[in-house]
Specification:
Radius of gyration of chain A: 13 Å
Strand order of the largest sheet of chain A: 2-10-9-4-5-6
Radius of gyration of chain B: 13 Å
Helix content of chain A: under 10%
Low-confidence stretches of chain B: none
Strand content of chain B: 35-45%
Distance between the termini of chain B: 36 Å
Mean pLDDT of chain B: 97
Shape of chain B: globular
Oligomer: heterodimer
Strand content of chain A: over 45%
Shape of chain A: globular
Distance between the termini of chain A: 40 Å
Structural class of chain B: mainly beta
Low-confidence stretches of chain A: none
Largest sheet of chain A: 6 strands, mixed
Number of helices of chain A: 0
Mean pLDDT of chain A: 97
Largest interface: A-B, 19 and 24 residues
Number of strands of chain A: 10
Order of helices and strands of chain B: EEEEEEEEE
Chain lengths: 118, 108
């Protein structure tokens, strides 16, 4: 059974940092492209970024609002995806989901809530 | 920045056909994907590559794309299909992915 479990969310002040983790099991993580998607309270889905598998270069792409502040990385030895978030803004408040797949996101975690507030 | 445009809401009676549209300039050259999100739950993929249905998704869900518009069709919508639906596709570079604003489907 495929499982994705996000963790690391919480309350942080504007300008602060937070690192989210997505622990996975049930599939070959090292072969998977992985994504972060967020959803602000009461709003729609927003793609945050993705990381390719190492065999396909391991490169990353980011949405414009987070580029330069957020970094996606992966540890294939731990089957875990990360999202390092720096210089957080109030508009980054959202539930953050990790998901599998390059385009078709087949599996999703249940999300972790990040609240940016003073 | 690239945008995908969806109607905010669609309403049908049970058994009727619901159609949700998604327009975007890159859709003639890029696939559309559709996600269903029920209240308080993670999204679920219901259509990929314009018209393909993942295993486990009911046959009443179908997709099509023509020109700058992609369409999700639910034939014989059921009460349990009430949800928010999002289209998803990249810009012309293929490196920036975007969700549409979402369409709330009401079946009653």
């Amino acid at each position: 059974e495929v499982q994705l479990v996000e963790s690391g969310g919480g309350l942080v002040k504007p300008g602060g940092s937070l690192r989210l983790s997505c622990a996975t099991s049930g599939f070959t993580f090292s072969n998977a492209w992985m994504n972060w998607v967020r959803q602000a309270p009461g709003k729609g889905l927003e793609w945050v970024g993705r990381i390719k598998s190492k065999t396909e270069g391991g490169t990353t792409d980011y949405a414009a609002p987070v580029k330069g502040r957020f970094t996606i990385s992966r540890d294939d030895s731990k089957n875990t995806l990360y999202l390092q978030m720096n210089d957080l803004k109030t508009e980054d408040t959202a539930v953050y989901y990790c998901s599998t797949g390059g385009a078709a996101h087949d599996y999703w975690g249940q999300g972790t809530l990040v609240t940016v507030s003073s | 920045s690239y945008e995908l445009t969806q109607p905010p809401s669609v309403s049908v009676s049970p058994g009727q056909t619901a159609r949700i549209t998604c327009s975007g300039d890159a859709l003639p050259k890029k696939y559309a994907y559709w996600y269903q999100q029920k209240s308080g739950q993670a999204p679920v993929l219901v259509i990929y590559e314009d018209s393909k249905r993942p295993s486990g998704i009911p046959e009443r869900f179908s997709g099509s794309s023509s020109g700058t518009m992609a369409t999700l069709t639910i034939s014989g919508a059921q009460v349990e299909d009430e949800a928010d639906y999002y289209c998803y596709s990249p810009d012309s570079s293929g490196n920036q992915w975007v969700f549409g604003g979402g369409t709330k489907l009401t079946v009653l």
